Amino acid sequence: MPKLPPVSGAEAIRALQRLGFERTRQSGSHVVMRLGGKGCVVPLHAELKVGTLAGVLRQAEVSAEDFAANL
After folding, report:
1. How far is residue 39's CA from residue 46's CA, in Å, rounded to a whole number?
2. For residue 71, is pLDDT > 60?
3. What pLDDT, on the 0 to 100 scale, is given for residue 28?
4. CA 42 to each of CA 24, 29: distance values in angstroms, whole numbers, following the listed order
5. pLDDT tens digits for 1-55?
6. Rounded CA separation 65/53 (Å)
7. Contact at 8 Å (CB) between 15 and 71?
8. What is the pLDDT of residue 2?
9. CB-side exposure of 14: number of CA atoms within 13 Å?
10. pLDDT at 3
11. CA distance linking residue 7 with residue 24, whole number of Å
């Protein structure tokens, strides 16, 4: 697995939207994204920690390579 780049929550949301995810709803500083039966919750922080970003990608079932290619 390649090293994940430092990104903000907004950048992560844009990359997921390029992969086909849709912004379903927002509750406070957390955005719920969906694509069919897959979904994830992205926090709108200035910079996501590596573990948080890895957890978001695991929830969304997206590889780090696909995510990095769509940044």
Report:
1. 22
2. yes
3. 94
4. 11, 8
5. 568 889 999 999 999 999 999 999 999 999 999 999 999 999 999 999 999 999 9
6. 13
7. yes
8. 65
9. 9
10. 81
11. 21
Tell the residue number behind the tokens 């957390």, with chain if given: 30
Reported confidence tier of residue 69, pLDDT bands at 50, 70, 90: very high
What is the DSSP track for 9-42? HHHHHHHHHHTT-EEEEEETTEEEEEETTEEEEE
Tokens of 47: 């910079």
Which amino acid, 44? L
* Exposed / middle / buried, residue 48 (Cβ in 10 Å: 0-12, 13-18, 19+): buried
Residue 4's SS3 state is coil
Hunting for tokens 């709108």 — which residue is that? 44
